[in-house]
Amino acid sequence: MAQLFLDAGAMLGESPRWHAAEARLYWVDIDAQRIHRTDPATGDTETMQLGCPVGCVAPRAGGGLVMGLKDGCALTDAWGEEPRAFGPQMLAGIPEQRFNDGCVDAAGRFWVGSVTSDKSNPGAMLFRLDPDGSLTPMIGGLLTSNGAAFSPDGDTFYHADTPTHAINAYAVDPATGLLGEGRLFHRFEQGKGRPDGGTVDAEGCYWSALWDGWRVVRLSPAGELLQTVELPVQRPSMIAIGGADMRTAFVTSAGKTLTDEERARQPHAGGLFTFRVDVPGLVQPGFGG
């Protein structure tokens, strides 16, 4: 059973990332334009206030963060620094799009996708940001790029376009970062939650947070449902696995656009939740740029 970890009251909590070297959980509130860093031992949280939405963050191998912002990606060298643009600002001048979900592969490349508010136009994309700053389009025709994660051997890339209710799995060449053929990994039933952010554990099983689904689920490498963990909030947004033994799950959630009745049912919407897992997570690589 999931427990309330931090009653954060986030508008749109997202992108939990366990930083093993610091023993801290990084996460963002996209709409509040904030990056947070939480000490799980005490619950103490430090906050960086930005001037634009921040969709996702990940640690850099050399220190600091890489992040997906409104118009493009950015870097910091240390906590609290003003982000500086890195790579092409592909979404500048496209007001209906911003960067959303992202993750780093074993070669230190940042896979980051966008979301569009214009749901009649599937113009969002998934990109690969290499350490040299080059930005390569990988998957197009999306509405909400989400769920990016890699199998432990790096040969499979998982990705969801949330409104489709489906998670796809792609063959990927770990050396070149090129995607091969994709296949349907799992499709969720309409009306019972849509796949948002995800992560992979040490057994290669994929965890998915189900937006409007009140739960997170664990899927086998074959896409079979293995486990369901209910949450006391309607909109879990992403899951990460970390902690000292890499067996603590952290789940962000959203509290915005709830009716008074919905808010009464879930007073901790926008909070962070935690539960223990039997299979440890994977230490996430750092961005090489």
CATH topology: Neuraminidase
Q: How would you classify the helix and strand content by structural class?
A: mainly beta
Mean pLDDT: 97
Shape designation: globular
Tell me what portion of residues adopts beta-strand conformation. Answer: over 45%
Terminus-to-terminus distance: 38 Å
Number of helices: 1
Could you state the order of secondary-structure elements as H and E?
EEEEEEEEEEEEEEEEEEEEEEEHE
Largest sheet: 4 strands, antiparallel
Taking all Cα atoms into account, the compactness measure Rg is: 17 Å
Weakly predicted, low-confidence segments: none
CATH superfamily: TolB, C-terminal domain
The count of domains is 1
CATH architecture: 6 Propeller
CATH C-level label: Mainly Beta
Binned, the helix content reads under 10%
Tell me what the structure shows.
- This protein has one domain: Neuraminidase.
- It has 1 helix and 24 strands.
- It has one helix spanning 260-265, and strands spanning 3-6, 13-19, 24-29, 34-38, 45-49, 56-59, 65-68, 73-76, 84-85, 97-104, 110-116, 124-129, 135-142, 145-150, 156-161, 166-172, 179-187, 194-200, 206-211, 215-219, 225-230, 236-242, 248-253, 272-276.
- The strands form 6 sheets. It has a 4-stranded antiparallel β-sheet with strand order 1-24-23-22, with no helix packed on it.
- The mean pLDDT is 97.
- It comes from Sphingopyxis lindanitolerans.
- This is Gluconolactonase.
- The active site is at residue 196.
- A divalent metal cation binds at residues 14, 146, 196.
